[in-house]
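A reminder before we start the practical. When you read a complex entry, don't treat the lines as separate problems. The point of joint prediction is that each chain is placed relative to the others, so the output describes one connected object in space. Small molecules and nucleic acid strands, if listed, are placed in the same frame. In the example below there are two entries. Take a minute to note the order of the lines before looking further.
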Amino acid sequence: AQKVTQAQTEISVVEKEDVTLDCVYETRDTTYYLFWYKQPPSGELVFLIRRNSFDEQNEISGRYSWNFQKSTSSFNFTITASQVVDSAVYFCALRAPSGSARQLTFGSGTQLTVLP
Amino acid sequence: EPEVTQTPSHQVTQMGQEVILRCVPISNHLYFYWYRQILGQKVEFLVSFYNNEISEKSEIFDDQFSVERPDGSNFTLKIRSTKLEDSAMYFCASSEATPRYEQYFGPGTRLTVT
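Here is the predicted structure of the whole assembly.
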């Protein structure tokens, strides 16, 4: 069975601070895929990034960066110089395609509030 | 940029009524999904659909639920006899064929059962 844990329920930062959102996952599969989605107050789910289990290279995209550590089963997400528009719920998700399984298993989300 | 669309954005229905939620996936995608999110909770998988049949479903997806692709573009979720606990945001998603591809979500339909 797959499981995704986001231990931080809520985080509040002041604009321009850096913030890291934690994600820990569990799976028995050796090949799997990890995702981050953003859910702004308007409610839609916006895809941010996908990482494959066989690609541990960390990535930076603008103010966003991701730290994938297979040894600790973690896939953390950092926003540098946060902005008010970053306020949203952020979900980490796992897809471990055992057999034909393609469903995403989501964590419970982290509510990020960026204060002006 | 192609996107998943869903209608209606908000549906209010009385307990025991049938509702149909509609989705138009991205046109070259082959896998379609429904998820739901009860207010303030995590997003939960309901069902995946490929090649005109259900490929996977969760425990939530019981006999009151059904999915259909009635034509080449629409993908629907029917809830036969709604219950109060069916009140949630329902998301449709689609993806390309291989497992590594991300799922793109629609804006959701908020279902309120009274």
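Discuss with your neighbour: The mean pLDDT of chain A is 91. What might explain this?
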